## 1
Amino acid sequence: MALLAQVALFRDMDRDALRLLAFSSERRRLRAGDTLFRKDDISEYSFVVVSGSITLIDDDVATAVVGPGTLIGEMALVSETRRPTTAIAREPTVILRLSRQMFRRTLEEYPAAAARIAAELRQRVFQISSELAEVKDRLLKLGDESSAKKPGGS
């Protein structure tokens, strides 16, 4: 339960809500090289790394290495999606598997926790939208610069 309280998405949940989530989770052990999930798999569960580490891979390129206290696949808690990466244990690793069904039940039973998580998710969506707007602006600027450098460009 203490580990779940350290996860950003769950940190504002009250003790009883965390307890329900912790008791409904499933602890799993992975060996080095074990695949937790593959890119494009349908996501039904989210995972919290308890110990060890997981490499996230996209198109044969390691994009991140995550360790204890990291929530992997948080969107699976609120919606069925496809995995954007493959996750492979780098070393012997213990994870907690959290189901969407139990997460929803927790939110139904603890509406204050649901409101706090909704606020956290809204903040993340806002942040991602801001970052995407910055990327768009940079790409437009690069496009304008590229056009200006071409012969006959204005």
## 2
Amino acid sequence: MTDRQLPADRLLFLDGLRALAALWVMLGHLRLFPLGWTAWEGWAAAPLNALMYMHYGVDVFLVLSGFCLALPLVRGDGTYRGGLKGFFAARAARILPPYFATLALILLVNTFVPIVRWARHDLGLTGDMPWQVLWTNLLLMQDIYPQYNNVNGPFWSVATEWHLYAVFPLLIWVWRRHGVAALLAAGTVAAVALTALSDAFPRIPVIDASVPQPPYYVVLLVQGIAAAALAFSPRFESVRAMLRKGAWLAALLLVVAIGAAFHAYPIVDVPSVLRHNAMFRWFDPLAGALTAALLVGLAGVAPTQPLRRLLESSALVKVGGFSYSLYLIHIPLLTALYGATLLLVEEPLTRFLLLLAAGVPVCLIGAWMFSRVFERRFGPRARPAHPAAQVQQVRAGEPVPSGPSSRPG
């Protein structure tokens, strides 16, 4: 089956990429509990050290979100089925029920067993939780009030994506009216302007709020939209083959650039984490561009080819199907399991191996069960089972897994 035979809204490799990003984030957080931000020496430790860069799983998810949301628009006439009201209603049904279910469960547990340093946040989640924390989480404003994002660290990314939905229709209008180049330019200008504003006013006076964090993430959403247009819009039909070859070349160059950047700013301990995080404004767009280039390139690869077969394997597709739930609940589950390891063993590596053996299956099974109750029941449409023919309906706009807990403190 060629890519032309495969409908654009039934691309299994998107779920495969989503699963890999979710697993990267989960395993990265799992590593931090027993081992912290300390790199191990030797080439054999490289995979273990790579887990400390799990923040970039956020970038993958946000580019995927822009790609999936734009996919039906770029292949159609650019209009929303059900109008803007239907678009926002579908986004709310997709994101909010699982989010509020997670929040309610965490607060319920905290009522009986106060959690001191939940998700490694300095403030912690205690029985006398400040009202600002409660309302920040209830109103989904963790990206604007990051100082109160201490219920579940990764919640910030839900707030970030939720607020980016507000500008998505405007970005689509720019693309329809002026093309991909103008879209990329507009996204870059917006990212630069918001970042400059955030630098000038780290806390907005009177309301003690921040410019939505990270202020440059709009460019990642734009990269996803642009990738969908380049991969599937009829406007580029005559140059599609050239674009797909160019995407693979761009991906190769971006891998080299990102490798050089990470070599210059490696994560080896807590001070190096701070230096690396200070470069997020440059590194995140590079990671987003790499993801976008891979999406354009993969769209031209036949499902029978090894790379597509790997990304569209049954296991990865299934994990991609409940990756949002995995994102929401993995830290609470790992926190509880890590507490148990503290009672059993003292050596950090042994704790890591024990947490790995118990945490991975518990998180995967727990997330799958959670998704059955809170995602499929309330989502805008059910996800069909993985078919033999390597086709599946894409879940557009999957929220990104990870959060400020990817950063120290």
